[in-house]
Amino acid sequence: MKRKILLVDDEANVRKALSTSLQKAGYDTKEAASGAEALERLDEYQPEVMLLDLRMPKLDGMETLRRLKQRRGHMPNVVMMTAYGSANDVMEAMRLGAFDYVQKPFDLAQVKQVVAKALKQPEAEDDAGSMRPSPEERADVPGLLIGLSPAMQEVYKLVGKVSMSRATVLIQGESGTGKELIAKAIHANSPRADKPLISVNCGAIPEKLLESELFGYERGAFTGAVGRKQGLFEVADGGTLFLDEVGELTLPLQVKLLRVLQERTLVRLGGVESIPVDVRIIAATNRDLRERMQKELFREDLYYRLNVVPIKMPPLRERKEDIPLLIRHFLAKFSRETGKEGCYLSPAAVELLHAYDWPGNVRQLENTIERAVVLASGPAILPEHVQVHMEESSQTIESPSEKQGIRYDDRPMKDIIQEVEKEAITRALHREKGNRLRTAKRLGISRSALLYKMEMYGIDVSEE
């Protein structure tokens, strides 16, 4: 018997292409031109998988998914489709129980792979009675996360799936990749959204002070303890505790943290009473915890307690397609903050930013755009406004490798910038098929300046 797939999209050509491809692959398909039609056909057809478009008139895909989750009876595995997805769309769809999320224009082979995976999973269960907050009840997080690269799409899917559980999450990634933003997104999309989210940087507080901050203390526990104080675990009760740089915890503190995770109780410093706490833990680190385990600097049992759901944040150099989105976001933000509305980057500055590898990741890019907006005398941001900050930030940014005494590059920064500029000019020449005039316009410089740079860098790209 053929497996049944329901295709829901308001565009007939999209439904036809999907139907033809899936039928050739041996599936039985039915089509629906709207969310309302899909809901009507559900019990009659009983598909195992539904491909559901997000943007449709009247009843859109997200509202259709919500109604599916509220109904009783048959529930297929839902794969959302859209050409206009955002981070919030992906997380909301996964939070509502979608199996997966694909972006248009998609490769039909990719769709067939996702359908095959969905068919291997049991059909979604009706969980209308579960404790899921409505969109009005949960915190809204517009614009919190920027980027729609495949790597970030996978992160958003994980955030959406894990938000509704109480599972401990370990977010790993280099400095500046946005680990705290992910923690905030998980909390904001969870049933704990109306409770506190408490953040603590484990590497920025001395051990003794951190212990009292986390677990609290009783009066007289130490010199200066003139009264009882609740720790952050108690303050975050019912909510979420974000432990940033958890790899910096000392071994004695790791033991105490493990006990809280296992027993869900704590004892204040100087106290004897076991205090129950209901706290969801999200931890983050830019360290390799497995390497620290081998050096006996991190407990193996704590690692597995924290690493229930791992989320890996990609460095910016591995998702360069997100750089234009990030630039626009930061440019708009700092233009408003400085009162310099209408700021824009010249094509040459954009090329320079795109060619750079960003060892400090999104945080470094944000700082670069902020300083460029401040330094620019007019609305146009030129390469020299960007280069100044790249030179300084590359020397001051502290990466995991630099903490271990390893530099990303030992060359003078001037040489690095010249190499980046040479690469940007060469790339622009190839895009314009060697045409000098069009290349100069693309880079925002004069033709004579382009020719000078080409001679200086020894660039020889023939005109096609």
Automatic annotation (TrEMBL):
It comes from the Bacteria. The keyword Metal-binding does not apply. PROSITE patterns: RESPONSE_REGULATORY (PS50110), SIGMA54_INTERACT_1 (PS00675), SIGMA54_INTERACT_2 (PS00676), SIGMA54_INTERACT_3 (PS00688), SIGMA54_INTERACT_4 (PS50045). SMART domains: AAA, REC. The keyword Nucleotide-binding applies. Pfam families: AAA_lid_14, HTH_8, Response_reg, Sigma54_activat. Keywords: ATP-binding, DNA-binding, Nucleotide-binding, Phosphoprotein, Transcription, Transcription regulation. Residues 145-374 form the Sigma-54 factor interaction domain. The modification 4-aspartylphosphate is found at residue 53. Residues 4-119 form the Response regulatory domain. InterPro entries: AAA+_ATPase, AAA_lid_NorR, CheY-like_superfamily, Homeodomain-like_sf, HTH_Fis, P-loop_NTPase, Sig_transdc_resp-reg_receiver, Sigma_54_int. This is Sigma-54 dependent transcriptional regulator. It comes from Brevibacillus brevis. The lineage of its organism: Bacteria, Bacillati, Bacillota, Bacilli, Bacillales.
